[in-house]
Write a structure and sequence with these properties.
The protein has helices spanning 39-42, 44-54, 81-91, 121-130, 140-146, 160-168, 200-212, 226-231, 242-255, 278-282, 292-295, 311-315, 318-323, 368-375, 380-384, 397-400, 408-429, 443-449, 454-467, 471-488, 495-503; strands spanning 2-11, 14-25, 30-34, 63-69, 103-105, 108-109, 115-116, 135-138, 153-156, 216-219, 269-270, 300-303, 325-329, 334-338, 342-347, 388-391. By secondary structure, it is an alpha/beta fold. α17 crosses α20 and α20 packs across α21 (495-503). The protein contains 21 helices and 16 strands. Strands 11-12-15-10-16 form a five-stranded parallel beta sheet. A four-stranded mixed beta sheet has the order 1-2-4-3. A three-stranded parallel beta sheet has the order 5-8-9. β13 and β14 (334-338) form a beta hairpin. The radius of gyration is 27 Å and the shape is elongated. 38% of the residues lie in helices and 16% in strands.
């Protein structure tokens, strides 16, 4: 007897539809699984057999062939257990085929028949909706994530026998409601900007970076507060918008880095180790998965000790910094991972970290050629893509004992107002821009929104000649100027905004 049902398997940041076909016939007892399945899928044979038996169903010893179509799509992970088990029960007559139509089934089975969560609930629901399914059946925690997408019924099941009763109409399960997916991470405290003593210029640069989603690099001696500043940037950013929350949750769920639950509401902050490979940073692998750049989508990617990262890993960031996505090409497919993030980098001025120490307490021990070699680990084209170059000097004892400064909440109010101005301006502009922040403006957007008066134009001309700026650097200065004007509540860029933006182009290369 032949039975069919549908499931989905992760592929990049999406999920692909998989049809599970089970054929039971006379022959030597055994289950043969075909269809380009990886080790985890092939091992499902043992999990499925034990789960079916421990849920009270008897399967006679017959020859069974399980086909996972399409045959040229590689299937990975634990997603297909439930679909295989239900198709197997239907093929043996425990379920009518009609019960399986119009539904998608995903979930890992334990040996006792319990369902365990799988990654990618949002992507699975999206695949089901595109396949015109009316219902998707998932483990409870995965269902709480999937329901946020909307557009189809999501049913949560605890056990295999519970799923069978639901399909037979003996014990119908309610559709999961969207309310359980909201408010995720609401109670977790974030570090506050008031804890950083001194560093007024660096705090100002952090506010500008938050307001326009600009990239920033902090350069200073050890212990000056570079890492503290970077970790407080997410607290200045507004919560994720609904569409952003869906995109971010989908990426993190498919990456397997977080348990399935509700939507992520806070912007991600990723801080990979300096030994991270290029594939780990931008994504890849035999079956490509998102890297740290994609996991920081709509959030912050923090690279501490920037020169210690591998050169090929740093150079791989050029595409996402410029275009907001990563393209990974493999023999079987070309995958695109979204990666629109704000880069925050930190580095010492030299290998010992004390070059240019104004207080004179520490003497730099690095020879000039060693300083040059240390700085040359970061290429000019990469530095050119960083909008704000900020010196972070060592903090004095008086500054350490000073009263707390502005809190993150106070600065976040100004950041939110500036971002609202950008959003309204870009929405009024019409079809020119797909971004809602100044850092993502196209060349046409810069021409339209970053016009200068005559005095500001002369200032920019002088800076171009004196500093040897590239065309990209000029565009980034104009974008930062636009953000500074937004923070000040101005419709046009003033000379003071442009002058401050030019001062952020410090040459650390």
């Amino acid at each position: 007897m032949l039975a069919r049902t549908n499931a989905a398997t992760p592929w990049g940041i999406d999920a692909r539809l998989v049809q599970v076909e089970v054929d039971v016939r006379n022959g030597l007892p055994g289950m043969h699984l075909v269809g380009l399945a990886d080790v985890a899928v092939r091992e499902s044979r043992e999990r499925v057999r034990s789960a079916i038996k421990n849920c009270g169903f008897e399967l006679p010893p017959r020859a069974v062939v399980v086909n996972l179509a399409p045959a040229d799509l590689r299937k990975e992970g634990n997603h297909l257990d439930l679909a295989i088990a239900l198709a197997l029960l239907a093929a043996h007559g425990h379920l009518p085929q009609e019960c399986l139509e119009g539904r998608l089934f995903n979930g890992e089975l334990g040996l006792d028949g319990r369902l365990r969560p799988v990654r990618g609930g949002l992507a699975l629901a999206e695949c089901a909706r595109e396949a015109a399914a009316q219902e998707i059946v998932l483990p409870p925690s995965t269902a709480r994530e999937a329901v946020a997408l909307g557009g189809l019924d999501v049913v949560a099941v605890e056990r295999l026998d519970e799923a069978v009763r639901h399909l037979l109409g003996l014990d119908r399960l309610p559709v999961v409601t969207a309310g359980v997916a909201l408010g995720h991470e609401a109670g977790r405290e974030m570090p506050d900007l008031s804890e950083v003593r001194g560093q007024g210029a660096a705090k100002r640069a952090l506010e500008v970076a938050a307001a326009g989603s600009h990239n920033v690099i902090f350069v200073g001696p050890p212990g000056s507060g570079k890492t503290m500043l970077a970790r407080r940037l997410p607290g200045l950013l507004p919560p994720l918008a609904p569409a952003e929350a869906l995109a971010v949750t989908k990426i993190h769920s498919l990456s397997g880095n977080r348990p399935p639950s509700g939507l992520m509401r806070r912007r991600p902050f990723r801080s990979p180790h300096a030994g991270t490979s290029a594939a780990g940073l931008i994504g890849g692998g035999s079956i490509p998965r998102p890297g740290e750049a994609s996991l920081a989508h709509h959030g912050v990617l923090f690279l501490d000790e920037l020169p210690e990262f591998r050169r090929d890993a740093l150079e791989s960031l050029r595409q996402p910094l410029e275009e907001g996505f990563v393209s990974v090409v493999r023999s079987r497919a070309r995958l695109t991972f979204p990666a629109r993030f704000a880069l925050v980098a930190a580095m010492n001025p030299c290998m010992c970290g004390h070059l240019g120490d104004l207080r004179g307490r520490f003497q730099c021990r690095c020879a000039p050629n060693l300083v040059e070699r240390y700085r040359s680990r970061i290429s000019g084209p990469l530095l050119d893509r960083i909008d704000l170059h900020v010196e972070v000097p060592a903090v004095t004892l008086k500054e350490l004992r000073s009263e707390p400064g502005e809190s993150s909440a106070d600065v976040a109010v100004r950041v939110a107002a500036a971002r609202n101005r950008q959003q309204k301006r870009h929405s009024k502009a019409g079809g020119g821009e797909s971004t809602t922040h100044n850092a993502g403006l196209s060349a046409e957007g810069v021409r339209r929104h970053c016009a200068l008066d005559l005095s500001a134009q002369r200032l920019l001309d002088s800076a171009f000649e004196r500093l040897g700026l590239s065309a990209r650097a000029v565009h980034r200065i104009l974008k930062v100027s636009r953000t500074l004007a937004d923070l000040a509540g101005r419709d046009r860029i003033a000379s003071a905004d442009l002058a401050e933006a030019i001062q952020y182009r410090r040459n650390v290369g």
